[in-house]
Amino acid sequence: MRPWTLLGIIVLIFAENAAAFKAHDFKTCSQSGFCRRGRALAARARESKDIWKSPYSIVANSVTVDHTEAAFSAQVKSSLYPGIKFGLELRVHEDGVVRIRMDEIGGLRKRYDEAASWALISEPKISQRLRWTVGKKDVRIVYGEKRDFEVVVSYEPLRVTLLKNGKEQVVLNDQGLLHMEHFRNKEETEVKAEEPKVEGDEGGEGAQEVMKQENPRAWFEGESEDAYWEESFSTWTDTKPKGDIETLNNCGWILIILISGPESLSLDITFPNHGTVYGIPQHATRLALPTTSGEGAFFSDPYRLYNADVFEYLASSPVSLYGSIPIMHAHSTDTTVGIFNAVASETWIDVSHVSEESTDTHWISESGILDLFLLPGPSPKDIFTQYSKLTGTPVIPPHWSLGYHQCRWNYISSDDVRTVQKRFDEDDIPLDVLWLDIEYAEEHKYFIWDKKNFPDPVEMVNDISALGRKVGLPSHHADICIICMANLTPRWSSSLTLMSNALPIIQFIRRPPTRAFLSSRRAARESTRVGAGLAAVLGLTFSILAPGSGGKTCSNLTSCQVVAGRGLKVLRMSTFGMT
Questions:
Q1: Which domains, from first to last, does the chain contain?
Q2: For site-directed labelling of 492, which of 29, 303, 334, 577 has its Cα 20 to 30 A away?
Q3: How far apart are alpha carbons 301 and 27 in whole angstroms?
Q4: 481 and 508 in contact (C-beta within 8 Å)?
Q5: Phi and psi of 357, rounded to 5°?
């Protein structure tokens, strides 16, 4: 073999390894405390088999039916913690979608419950024609043009079933994995003096025997408080103290963040007569989701919903990617059903098949309430119609956006960008949009041009726009993408080289990330810093809102702190009447 050939092979091997998927940068379930707890719960249930029973049940005399619409509410109790109260509410919408909500009542603090308010285009209309029927063991409702749909809510244990023509379509808590970890204070461990030893031989008659106190909840929650109050990943440690206070001094109000230990939500969702499930994007795998648990599982880890920028991702993997949409479709030759889980926190989902005709799924979320929508179908078209009524239909894209977009990490200078455009024209390749990645920015500070490598951003944009093309600037932290239009006079900030009046600007601003999609407070502050700077220069509206603030906003952008607590809306920008 020639020396240069051998050298080339070695270089290729090292290059491939260098660019390969960096698994150590992303959590697995075993490295996530709440996912570990959820999977351990499922394992205990499997081992117990027929004797396993969910500790959650409905208090029969608490059932209250609304006599004006198809809704009822009830109190839920847990035999594990009799003093903790939960509230349950079920509604049937005009289009037949069933909504199930469960939340902790009177806890140490409020669980985050605003995911649906961000996801839904409006509050769904509850059916005025249908009524629930209360029985001794359950609450029922029958509906549909042919009265072929039925929802049964069993009291003990708590179990929700959607049926069509008497055949089970979706069942909640069929395996007894429902568990809403309530807020609690960490019990202080008293340091006791060592007891004096009694004389006598070790293990003999005179020796003291220390009796270990049994944990009555261990059968369900496990023996140890696994990552209840602290957990680590790589070099980072996430502590969960009793409370933390941060002040927004210039806004006239105080935001108190309380983090009281574990608050995960576990729920099993079973499709007894549907052997194939789709959805929960984004993951790089086949459309029909492979199994992640059970005998012969295709993947060893659950599917993860947690927005992540995964470079060189694997072609087949449950690892999360850029987007997270908690919707799942279950399909059979007879019907198609779906569920939309309005949860904003990090979520892991196990998929398994007890038989070829059924599918078991287990959803484990870091926080939030149970807010689930059952999409009854029965056809794929019906499922998409029902889902789009909840979250809206896609916006019709502008004509130019349907063309060819060119993007690469990375174009290193404005001259490099011009050269790329020139090459496209020389080779007669159509081009409509050129996207710049992060290297256009000074020290990766979004929307701040690198003066050395991009000294003439306005001229560069104008050169590209003169040929009817556009330039795209992405921002990962601020969740904002901007398309710059040409031939407009820019306004410059005195301190920052920002292209501001490249207006009109077409904005794609995602709704504010919840705590699940913010890895740290630093990420929230970074998002807000970028948003505030961009808003100030572009003349947009910028506000910081917090739950319970009565809509009060912080207008002093230079001195207000931003805190990424659970439930805090971090970034809100509006322009041209859009938010």
A1: 29-181+262-391 (2.60.40.1760), 399-574 (no CATH)
A2: 577
A3: 10
A4: yes
A5: -100, 0
